[in-house]
Amino acid sequence: MAAIELDGIVRRFGDTTAVAEISLTTARNDFLVLLGPSGCGKTTLLRMIAGLLEPTEGRILVDGRDVTALPPRERDLAMVFQNYALYPHLTVERNLGFGLSVRRTGKDELRRRVDEVAELLDLGHLLGRRPKELSGGQRQRVALGRAMVREPQAFLMDEPLSNLDAKLRSGTRTRLISLHRRLDTTFVYVTHDQIDAMTMATKVAVLNQGRIEQFGSPVEIYDEPATAFVAGFMGAPPMNLLPAELGTGPDDDQLVLRAPGLELPLPHRGDPGVREVLLGIRPEHLVPAAAGELRGRVDIVENLGNEEIAECEIGEARLSIRGARPIGLTAGAAAAFTVRPEHVHLFARQSGRRLAWEPDPVPALVS
């Protein structure tokens, strides 16, 4: 296992900057997820770690060794691609052992490693088949197994679950979590799927336009998003973001958030200093209440089995509400909602940065 350090990594394609000054460090057994929308630079970053692309600027270190100028074969990292990249004319057994045979590994050692991986991934009964005879999930396991037999310092994975259906994807996530624990090594995993990040990662780097918006644990990123972008990206449905004006109450002894359909007092004294904000509330934290501070009309109620999601119009904004079924809302009816102060998130409307608000001191931009 190895720690991976990125030091000021930049990648340009002509006049376009795909990755802009990214720096982060993993622990030796981290499961790091590079998360973000299409085109944010996450795959470009992964390919630079693998050695398939050269950084325009910056350094890449693996276990303290500078590998920036080394070719992929000298980095001791194993890559699992989105399309699996299996050799169609080779059996599962030969696909698994191909990398070792190229490195002229002895037959006994090759057989030992292939057998161990086949048992670990439940591929023993498939060793004689070719890729065209396998399901998508089986091909994915073969691709993962081919990386594992090399016993690399770290695994790099580029959206390996994207071609699987929902049920198979869920089961494969569980298998990957188990493998990470058993192998006790570093995984770097690229995805646009936040569920992958929340369920598998020990650390998440949320990317946007080639930059890291936030780096931390899944819980930190979900509970305390550093920017409005992260807040609006994480969650299903994502956090509600409502433009509001932040001011003081009539007696100047508390903060009040005001917007069409909203007047929400917050337990805080003093002048906040910031007026134009984005109010963030997770859908699961909005609770129907007869005398709620948010007032509007229910548009749609979706039944998801064990829970329901309602879409409501509050002033000029559209908010999602999520709760156990029955949520008690009816499409077309007026409704009101309340939220506990500790579940209120505030962001500067212009910069999108998180605002820290506590009883003392007054709200200030998080540095």
Could you explain how this protein is built, in words?
- The chain has 367 residues and is an alpha+beta fold.
- It folds into two domains: 4-232, P-loop containing nucleotide triphosphate hydrolases (Rossmann fold, 3-Layer(aba) Sandwich), CATH 3.40.50.300; 239-365, Beta Barrel (OB fold (Dihydrolipoamide Acetyltransferase, E2P)).
- It is 23% helix and 35% strand.
- The protein contains eight helices and 22 strands.
- The protein has helices at 42-50, 92-102, 107-120, 136-148, 166-183, 194-200, 218-223, 228-233; strands at residues 4-13, 16-25, 31-35, 57-62, 65-66, 77-80, 154-158, 186-191, 203-208, 211-216, 240-248, 255-259, 262-266, 276-281, 287-288, 294-303, 307-314, 317-324, 334-338, 345-348, 354-356, 364-365.
- The chain has a seven-stranded antiparallel β-sheet with strand order 13-12-11-14-20-21-22. It has a six-stranded mixed β-sheet with strand order 6-7-8-3-9-10, sandwiched between helices. Strands 15-19-16-17-18 form a five-stranded antiparallel β-sheet, with no helix packed on it.
- It is elongated and about 80 Å long.
